[in-house]
Design goal:
single chain, about 260 residues, alpha/beta, Rossmann fold, Alpha-Beta Plaits, 2 domains, 6-stranded parallel β-sheet, two-stranded antiparallel ribbon
Length: about 260
């Protein structure tokens, strides 16, 4: 088995139950595994050129990522930030880096998560665990994540988005070029995507956040709601203070003006 670095993405929203969950894991993991630990801020708030992503990129090890977001968008968030590797559910001796993502889940409990980590890293031998905390100033971000295993490059998102979030790369492959141009709380491109390839990890609606457990009947060309107000709505984990006229209100007005 290759060496493994466990990357723990701290939620950072002040939720005391999640904070206690994370603290318990950070106390137990060095005692139960020989893998190195890398503690970073919330994965979806990181910058591609920031110290957290650089630290992950510089680790020559396989990666076991523990975060509060679903495994599929967690993997593609790493890939979108330049972290190479293949998605896996276990680690083997292959030369290509393996990235295994586990979702932290209050309902499952910390003992269950610890058991999964031990099962995945139990064959490690020959070194002790080192814990590194990466300090990085971040701000709350909302942006789409593309799953390129699902994406058909149909360009529905590019044609639909009003804010210049998407562009084509040199190979004419769709990409998220301006993530911070996305309007906070708007998941419309995810709803119009016929391949369910776009997720918003911060959304609390499972289908939009990247869960594989449920199917959203409003997705794609056949959805009845994709051009109505519901296309531009998403439940957020925490309400934010806004002006009398929100960004979503502006977006809905602009959609109405398009005469679709």
């Amino acid at each position: 088995m290759n060496n493994i670095t466990i990357v723990i993405s701290i939620n950072g929203d002040g939720n005391p139950k999640r904070r206690d969950f994370e603290s318990w894991l950070l106390d137990q993991l060095p005692k139960k595994t020989k893998a190195n630990l890398l503690v970073i801020p919330n994965l979806i708030d990181l910058r591609a050129d920031g110290p957290s992503i650089r630290a992950i990129a510089n680790a020559a090890d396989d990666i076991l990522l523990l975060s509060w977001i679903f495994p599929r968008p967690a993997f593609w968030t790493l890939r979108s930030n330049g972290i190479d590797g293949r998605a896996g559910h276990s680690f083997d001796a292959k030369t290509e880096r393996t990235i295994c993502c586990l979702q932290l889940d209050l309902d499952a409990g910390h003992e269950a998560i610890l058991g999964q980590v031990i099962q995945l890293t139990g064959a490690l031998r020959g070194r002790g665990s080192q814990v590194s905390h990466i300090t990085e100033v971040t701000k709350r971000r909302w942006y789409p994540v593309i799953d390129y295993d699902r994406c058909s490059n149909c360009l529905e998102c590019l044609n639909f988005c009003l804010f210049g979030v998407f562009e084509l790369d040199k190979a004419d492959q769709i990409k998220v070029q301006e993530p911070d141009a996305c309007r906070d709380g708007c998941p419309a491109c995810s709803r119009v995507c016929p391949s369910s390839a776009i997720s918003f990890p911060r959304c609390i609606e499972k289908t939009i956040a990247g869960s594989d457990e449920t199917v959203d009947s409003t997705r794609g060309r056949g959805g009845l709601d994709i051009l109505g107000p519901k296309a531009c709505e998403c439940k957020l984990p925490k309400p934010r203070k806004t002006s009398d006229k929100s960004n979503v209100d502006d977006l809905i007005e602009k959609l109405d003006e398009l005469d679709l």
